Amino acid sequence: MVGDFLAVDKMAYGGRIPQTILAIPFVHHTIPLTKSTKSYVEWIKFPYMRFQPLNDVQRNDVVVFNYPDGDTVAIERQNESYYAIVREFEAMLNPNAPDYERKKVDGRYSPEYITHIKIKNSGDYYSGKGCAAVKKEYKVVARPIDKRENYVKRCVAMPGDVFTIINGQTHINGQLAPLPKRVQFSYFVTGELSPAKRKSLDINEEDRYRINEKTMLYNINNKQKEQIEKMGYSVVSCLDKVGEFDYSVFPHDSRYGWNKDNFGPITIPSKGTTIVLNDSTIVIYDKIIKNYEHNDLDIKEGKIYINGKETTSYTFQQDYFFMMGDNRHNSLDSRFWGFVPRDHIVGKASFVWLSIDKFKKLGERKVRWNRMFKKIK
Question: Which one, 3, 34, 61, 343, has least CB within 10 Å?
């Protein structure tokens, strides 16, 4: 829940040797009370190494890992994916791109759309102009693996698995996968639940959004949904339909036509496995080849070159995992930025050692005592 503080077992999957060792102790990547001053220096860096693990990551484990898209960060928007920001600018600048998604808000043109129109009609477009525009607009920095943001998600697919989402239901190797006990989805609810009702249902205040005067959107679990329906409210599922292409969803290519509720099938890369590279598969694996396995990748006249050599195949150097949040419609996870490399794995989420409800005032039981030392399942 929002406000949970987690204890993480960093030895569960084999302790990872620190790579960036010259840093201020107990500080992650930025010195407190500053916006962008690094808390570390990279004069000395160790290569990636791990102790021999007693256990490997298992399907459905709740895993803490370094955010893969966090290798590059726009400081002024560091809570967002740098690559998503670049795609946003590319869509704004490319005159042939579809209209900006957030075109209208309550029937009116949004400021973002107006800006989009202005930018799209300014100057000549060229491939990569979005990246150049982002670097001109924001301060962009690179971060080593162990200084990227820590994320916590559930491992839903292992190396070698064929993963698919069909109408919000996950499938592994063609078989329906069980859902976590308290998994949440988005629902349109006609009418407003009073604060007392939301409290009785244990609904997080950050899991509700107003759509219009009559309709609210709630991220709730199945038990909460049934209780709301018993109160007489209309509750309608909010699933993306098959074929509704969502540009924000990996691999961000209309040829795949995927969205957060209908995704795949996709094979999770495993160490030693060789795949065929062509115009359609390269968009799935280009980040692995370039960013995670540190190769030079070029595409010239339809041909693919890795480290200067033309090739039609690639062999993965490490295992990868597919991570998803249990709040399925309000989670920035592998559906949006792809695979998690093994060298990004920090550890296994063990238990909640403190939980604070930020929506309550002092004297209103801000500490959730019933969650103290609760094991994470």
Answer: 34
d(CA 346, CA 24): 19
Range with lowest mean pLDDT among 29-33, 105-109, 153-157, 348-352? 105-109
Tokens of 305: 């070159």
Residue 152's alpha-carbon distances to 66, 204, 229, in angstroms, are: 9, 18, 31
Q: Show the 3-state SS of the chain.
A: CCCEEEEEECCCCCCECCCECCECCCCCCECCCCCCCECECCCCECCCCECCCCCCCCCCCEEEEECHHHHEEEHHHCCCCHHHHHHHHHHHHCCCCCCCCCCEECCEECHHHHHHHHHHCCCCCCCCHHHHHHHHHCCEEECCHHHCCEEEEEEEECCCCEEEEECCEEEECCEECCCCCCCEEEEEEECCCCHHHHHHCCCCHHHEEECCCCEEEEEEEHHHHHHHHHCCCEEEECCCCCCCCCCCCCCCCCCCCCCCCCEEEEECCCCCCEEECCCCCHHHHHHHHHHHCCCCEEEECCEEEECCEECCEEECCCCEEEEECCECCCCCCHHHHCCEEHHHEEEEEEEEEEEECCCCCCCCCCECHHHCCEECC
Q: Which residue has the tokens 């980040």?
A: 287
Main-chain dihedrals φ then ψ at residue 249, nearest 5 degrees: -90, 135
Residue type, 328: R
The predicted pLDDT at position 102 comes to 44
CA–CA gap between residue 159 and residue 320 (Å, rounded): 6
CB 24, CB 40: distance < 8 Å = yes
55-84 pLDDT, tens digit per residue, is 899 999 999 999 999 999 999 988 889 998
d(CA 4, CA 354): 6
